[in-house]
Specification:
With about 190 residues, this protein is of the alpha/beta class. The chain contains six helices and ten strands, in the order E-H-E-H-E-E-H-E-E-E-E-H-H-H-E-E. It has a four-stranded parallel β-sheet, with helices on both faces.
């Protein structure tokens, strides 16, 4: 797991307090006193939380500490909760070609257009996206639908057909899931 980086932004007193406790905390603590310094720290980190004493509109991954004084244990608990939320959100988004799949809301999005999908459709897309070669229908049956190989293949074919049609109607993309003679593939 990558290091959790806590960036204290324009909140000097909190930085000094947490710096003293630094050895006891599970995150690396740094300070930024300007927008340029903050941008530099954010560029060099992928797992970060910015804590400040007021809301800055153009800053993401921000935790605003408004209710002070606060018990130090409560503060550390709140910071850990914020890191968990960030991790959950980061893990819920899957990039497939030009699309972003939100596993939590079961939506596929591109260019501010969203398409609501079923759980089976999400599972089909993610399974196909992990394969470098066409996936046979019987493999999709076993891995996505948990069907035995003696079950009729039309269920999978029908679901993939409908999924391809939804994607075509919403995104005008007829090439997202390609049907080949030996299975389906996302390129």
């Amino acid at each position: 797991m990558s290091t959790q980086n806590l960036i204290i932004y324009k909140f000097t007193s909190l930085y000094h307090i947490l710096e003293e406790l630094g050895l006891e905390l599970n995150f690396k603590i740094t300070f930024a006193d300007s927008e340029n310094a903050l941008n530099e720290k954010v560029q060099n980190n992928n797992n970060y939380l910015i804590i400040s004493n007021k809301k800055y509109p153009d800053i993401s991954n921000q935790f605003v500490l408004e209710n002070i004084p606060i018990n130090i244990y409560k503060l550390v608990e709140q910071i850990n909760i914020q890191f968990l939320k960030l991790q959950f959100n980061n893990q819920s988004h899957v990039k497939v070609n030009n699309y972003t799949i939100n596993l939590n809301s079961r939506e596929m999005a591109a260019n501010n257009i969203k398409l609501k999908l079923t759980e089976k459709e999400i599972n089909t897309i993610t399974y196909l996206s992990r394969s470098n070669k066409p996936v046979r229908i019987d493999e999709l049956q076993a891995k996505v639908w948990s069907y035995q190989s003696d079950i009729e293949t039309h269920t999978v074919e029908t679901h993939v057909y409908r999924l391809r049609k939804k994607i075509l109607n919403t995104f005008n993309d007829n090439e997202f899931i390609i049907s080949k003679k030996n299975g389906y593939q996302i390129k």
